[in-house]
Amino acid sequence: MKCFECAKNGKDSDTVAVCIICGRGVCKDHLVREETPVWEGEYSIKLKCGMGISCDYKDVQHWKKVLCIPCHEALKENY
Q1: pLDDT below 50 — which residues of the chain?
Q2: What pTM does this model have?
Q3: CA-based, 20 to 30 A from 40: which of 21, 31, 55, 76?
Q4: Domain boundaries, the chain
């Protein structure tokens, strides 16, 4: 997979992550990895903490998450 942002600029860079908001593949130069504010609502996936024990949603609120730069900027504007 190639970086979406690089491809828009005519470059050819491999993806190292996927934005959790829009799903775009991004290279190391076009991602932000940080703890994001607590999200309201539920995640669309069910998490396992190990050996079949489910996690509570509060368990994942403080994980660092990967976002593309446009989604990160939009998120920052709203918190």
Answers
A1: none
A2: 0.68
A3: 31
A4: 4-77
